[in-house]
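Retry 2 of 3 after timeout on previous attempt. Resubmitting structure tokens to design endpoint.
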């Protein structure tokens, strides 16, 4: 009796531990069995019973089986394969791209227009002081970048006292990586003073580029004197004097011309009444 009772419990426990399979037989028909019908030609859907605490991850009902983001769409057959605008990330948190990323707009026409940069413009002026009547040259160098620059115009301006007071170059079309060099030449007159040369470069797509170059003019000063200053003379006397021309200024004076005009009652006998000097240095004296 005791052995029979124990055997019954073992049989019940074995049945409880045996996996139960559910065989789908069609809509609304399910059969539980321990084995499949060997006459089945196709394997029916079989689901093993799992514990009650187990829950499987079910795909969204609206997109069954999809593991992709909501914004992703697979092109239908026959389409070009390109995603429509509505299928792209909306930027509301679904995008896998960084927030700072933005798609380039084709044909927007917003490309930056490259020009001669400010760092590419250089002006070289005289390294020594300028004297009256000197010729002074300013060298202007402009280096373009990798894109063609158009309507490039260069002006070089000097203050009053120089001839001319402005030099203009251009307009030019400057090829990629091309370097242009221009020379602005001016002549200092006797009234030239120290100041600045102003170079301005203008072009399409960029504001004016301005360069200032200081220069110093050492003004000359010509002093003329006669010796003796007073000559006592009687009628028909021959008198003689000497003319001294001195540069008492701070710079060399060039193209000096001296003319001694006889006064009323005097008659020329001999000597030099007109003289020209190419230049007179500072402190120089000529007769």
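Retry 2 succeeded. Sequence:
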């Amino acid at each position: 009796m005791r052995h029979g009772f124990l055997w019954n419990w073992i049989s019940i426990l074995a049945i409880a531990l045996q996996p139960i399979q559910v065989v789908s037989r069609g809509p609304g028909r399910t059969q539980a069995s321990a084995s499949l019908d060997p006459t089945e030609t196709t394997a029916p859907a079989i689901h093993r019973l799992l514990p009650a605490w187990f829950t499987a991850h079910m795909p969204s009902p609206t997109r069954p089986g999809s593991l992709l983001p909501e914004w992703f769409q697979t092109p239908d057959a026959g389409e070009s394969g390109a995603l429509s605008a509505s299928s792209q990330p909306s930027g509301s948190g679904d995008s896998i791209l960084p927030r700072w990323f933005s798609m380039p707009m084709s044909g927007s026409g917003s490309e930056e227009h490259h020009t001669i940069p400010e760092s590419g413009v250089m002006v070289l002026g005289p390294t020594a002081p300028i004297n009256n009547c000197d010729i002074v040259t300013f060298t202007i160098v402009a280096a373009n970048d990798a894109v063609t620059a158009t309507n490039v115009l260069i002006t070089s301006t000097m203050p009053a006292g120089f001839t001319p007071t402005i030099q203009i170059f251009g307009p030019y079309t400057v090829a990629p990586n091309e370097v242009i060099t221009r020379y602005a030449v001016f002549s200092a007159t006797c009234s030239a003073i120290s100041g600045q040369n102003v170079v301005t470069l203008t072009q399409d797509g960029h504001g004016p580029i301005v360069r200032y170059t200081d220069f110093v003019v050492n003004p000359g000063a010509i002093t003329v004197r006669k010796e003796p200053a007073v000559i006592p003379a009687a009628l028909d006397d021959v008198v003689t004097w000497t003319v001294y021309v001195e540069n008492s200024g701070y710079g060399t004076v060039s193209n000096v011309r001296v003319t001694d005009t006889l006064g009323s009652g005097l008659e020329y006998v001999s000597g030099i009444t007109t003289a020209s000097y190419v230049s007179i240095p500072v402190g120089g004296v000529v007769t």
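Attempt log closed. Confidence is low (pLDDT under 50) at residues 28-36, 80-87, 106-111.
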